[in-house]
Amino acid sequence: MPPVVHHVQECVGNHEFDFGSDILVQRVAESKFQWFGSNVRDKATGNVLGNGLDTTLFPIASTAQDGAIQVGMFGICTPETPQLSFPGDKVEFQDILGTAKRCVDDLKARGADVIIALTHVSIAHDKLLAKRVPGIDVIIGGHDHDPFTMYQGKTFIHKSGQNAYWLGRLDFDIRKASGKVTVSPAWKMIANQNVTPDAGVEALVHKYMAPFMTADHLEAGARQLAVLSLPLVTKTSVMRGEESNFGNLVADAVRQELGAQFGVLNGGFVRGDTGLSEMIESEAGTTSMCLVHEAKSQLTVGIVLKEMPFPRPAVLLRIQARDLKEALEQHLRHYPLLSGSFPHVSGLRLTYDRTRNTPEITTFQDELGNNVDLDDYVTVATTKFIAGGGDGCVSWKKATLLATDDTIAQVAIRFLEKKRLIAYPEKEGRVTIVD
User: Fold this and answer.
1) Portion of the chain with pLDDT greater than 90, in percent
2) CA 89, 90, 92 angle in degrees (round to 5)?
3) What percent of the chain has pLDDT over 70?
4) Is the peptide bond before 336 cis (omega within 30 degrees of 0)?
5) Which of 66, 108, 332, 374 is most buried when burial is the number of CB atoms within 10 A of its CB?
6) Burial class (CB within 10 angstroms; exposed 0-12, middle 13-18, buried 19+) of 309
């Protein structure tokens, strides 16, 4: 269906706001295609931010007697963006269910036979849209880092995962007869491995990467910081769902470099998801693919910057231990769902008990095994994003800012340069979860 390819647009997601809404509006204006943002509104005008698309309707040729098939599309961005990024106070993220229903009603009234929603929300929200908003035939989603393909009721949902690891090809057999339309999908997931790059795309990438490919940049990126005695795991599903030795390392780095009692890093801050592929066997005897930096390999400046590309500074906070405990419970509230809020800690050992009516941290100790007095005030090193209540962990806002340092990546580089030899076991029991 080539005509569809020419009409497919982009839907804004939370990371489009990482440099603020003004920068996003500039990037949208520079684009040679249009952006959907059906629920993303400029507070001053009420319009879609950046004069983006609310809905669109276009025909595709059909051999059916009823004539061309009208395809309608709209786009939804996660309403959690203010907690995940930096949209500022000029932008309103409207309710996704209300927005979707309005868009479906509008497209149906204009004659849409098939409705496709482009979404940047979690799979749970995609399923909710399919359940609560009749009339959506297809949801093509993002946001989640792993691929999904499923039906929710009569709605087909597909996500192709993150970072172009996969190319998802979707084919739809759309039939229209006597006013009734049926949509039958077929899909193919193509691994982005051992593929010859398109010459035109490769040239464009080189154009933008050229400033970072100078001899000075390459030399700086290759600078060795430390050698690993044990593998370091950076797999996204680990960083966002369980204790990670890479997360422990970075939490230690910010704590020690900023001179804090404790350190906290949100798992979503680590983005590289790179390293050697290994088959890891669980206690249950199952195996899964895990990404690690293998033992005896070198950690370089380039690796650290790739793992932590966000230019967010480390900060030193003073906070009452009671509020710190509450904040960490907010970090863990999504478990067992994978979440960028999952905490990696330094100087702390905690147990989160999900068997209680209200899940809570039941063990809250320092690294020596002493219970932390909840009435005490403590110092914590973390990211500026978290300090501002990022990921919905609003109890951090009760803290007092004491100091701001370099970016998290630069702080980690300083730490690694001093250590030179790194040995972090896979698990240390810093965060224990009771199910």
Assistant:
1) 57
2) 85
3) 91
4) yes
5) 332
6) middle
Q: Pick the closest to residue 79 from 119, 115, 45 (CA basis).
A: 119
Contact 61, 68 (CB under 8 A): yes
In terms of pLDDT, which residue wins out, 281 or 159? 159
- Residue 393's nearest CA partner among 126, 95, 82 is 82
Domains and CATH numbers, the chain: 2-191 (3.60.21.10), 223-434 (3.90.780.10)
DSSP 8-class letter at 332: T
According to DSSP, residue 367 is labeled: T
Cβ burial, residue 154 (10 Å; 0-12/13-18/19+)? exposed
Sequence-distant (≥ 6) Cβ neighbours of residue 161 within 8 angstroms = 144, 145, 146, 147
10 Å Cβ neighbour count for 286?
8
Q: Per residue in 165-198, pLDDT tens?
A: 888 889 998 888 877 888 999 988 888 888 888 8
**CA distances in angstroms from 425 to 285, 347, 412, listed in the order given:** 20, 16, 18
Beta-strand (E) ranges in 20-63? Answer: 35-36, 40-42, 55-60
The string of DSSP letters for 62-95 reads: --STT-PEEEEEEEEE-TTHHHHS---TTEEE--
**Amino acid found at 421:** L
Angstrom distance (rounded) from CA 160 to CA 169: 9
- Non-local (6+) Cβ contacts of 63 within 8 A are none
For residues 240-266, one letter each, b for 16 or more C-beta atoms within 10 angstroms of the residue's C-beta and e for the rest, the string is bbbbbbbbbbbbbbbbbbbebbbbbbb
Q: Above 90 in pLDDT, residue 295?
A: no
Distance of alpha carbon 220 from the chain centroid: 28
Among 19-28, 94-103, 253-262, 365-374, which is the least confidently predicted range?
A: 19-28
* Alpha carbon distances (Å) from 376 to 163, 353, 373: 43, 23, 5
Say what the pLDDT of residue 5 is: 38
pLDDT value of residue 18: 86
CB atoms within 10 A of CB 21: 21
Secondary structure class of 285 (helix, strand, coil): coil
Long-range Cβ pairs for the range 135-139 (8 Å, 24+): 135/104, 135/108, 136/100, 136/104, 137/183, 138/114, 138/170, 138/172, 138/183, 138/185
The winner for highest mean pLDDT among 129-133, 171-175, 205-209, 231-235 is 129-133
Angle at 154 between CA 152 and CA 160, to 5 degrees: 55
Instruction: Summarize the chain as % helix, strand, coil (round to 5).
Output: 30, 35, 35
